[in-house]
Design goal:
Nucleotidyltransferase, domain 5; 5-stranded mixed sheet; 8 helices; 20% strand; globular
């Protein structure tokens, strides 16, 4: 019997299907929008089609994320903290500290030796501490989201951006543009600013290695590289696009656990 996990995030909905061995056999992702249940259903169907299975083959659906309770066809639901801890530990069993940078929020999670959540901190009050800040900075500079990584690769220095609020930080960006700073150096500075906030949040949970970096922002290799450098060079980053799916993977694993408890 297969299980499904749906991570209903503030920016994207991610769906995962695992087989009875815990192997990932189907996945799908789409921007959340305002039709949360419809988008979640569509992503589950897309993941199911990629897995090549029927709806009846899915024994349990577990949702996570801010919109988890808005999906009426779920069987169970869990918090995104629990889902992330399960998903990350499945990939990197020795993880003790997770940094999750999404489109609207940033989370630092500290785990004990058994993978249980011991401490966490959220930075969800300002876009300067999330991936949205990088997207807005790229927009001001006249670049698209997927151009961020190659743009930063050309940078020879990082223009400092110190604003702790998105509004002030954006004002700094505009000021740097007017002073003739290069777009790649401004973008590099924005990325370093986000990295500093990430490390600060991790310190608040008394971070301990191993570190694992997840969230949509990690699809930019240069962001992962800058964060690794700030942490002394050692940090896990899930391969390909799995950094965005760890919450959904954890939800699907917890769906498996729910099924097993029902049959005991």
């Amino acid at each position: 019997m297969y299980t499904a996990g749906i991570d209903v995030g503030s920016t994207y909905v991610k769906a995962i299907i695992l087989n009875e061995n815990g192997d990932l056999v189907g996945s799908a992702i789409h921007s959340t929008g305002f039709l949360i249940e419809e988008t979640s259903k569509n992503m589950l169907e897309e993941a199911r089609e990629r897995a090549g299975i029927n709806s009846a083959d899915i024994g349990c659906i577990t949702t996570a994320g801010f919109g988890r309770s808005m999906v009426s066809f779920r069987n169970t639901q869990v918090t995104d903290l629990i889902a992330q801890s399960w998903g990350v530990r499945a990939l990197y069993p020795a993880t003790h500290t997770i940094i999750d940078i999404g489109g609207q929020t940033m989370k630092a999670i500290r785990l004990d030796d058994g993978g249980r959540v011991m401490n966490f901190r959220l930075n969800d009050k300002c876009a300067a501490g999330s991936g949205t800040f990088l997207e807005k900075t790229a927009h001001y500079l006249g670049y698209g989201i997927e151009e961020i990584a190659p743009l930063v690769e050309r940078s020879t220095k990082a223009v400092p951006i110190s604003g702790i609020c998105a509004v002030f930080a954006e004002s700094e960006v505009i000021n740097h543009i007017s002073q003739g700073e290069k777009p790649e150096d401004i973008m590099h500075g924005a990325m370093l600013s986000l990295t500093e906030r990430s490390v600060s949040l991790m310190k608040q949970v008394q971070m301990q290695p191993e570190f694992t970096l997840v969230g949509g922002i990690m699809r930019f290799p240069v962001m992962a590289r800058v964060l690794r450098e700030s942490l002394g060079g050692a940090a896990n980053v899930p391969p390909e696009n799995l950094a965005q799916f760890t919450g959904a993977i954890g939800a699907a694993l917890l769906a498996r656990r729910h099924l097993e408890k029902k049959t005991d």
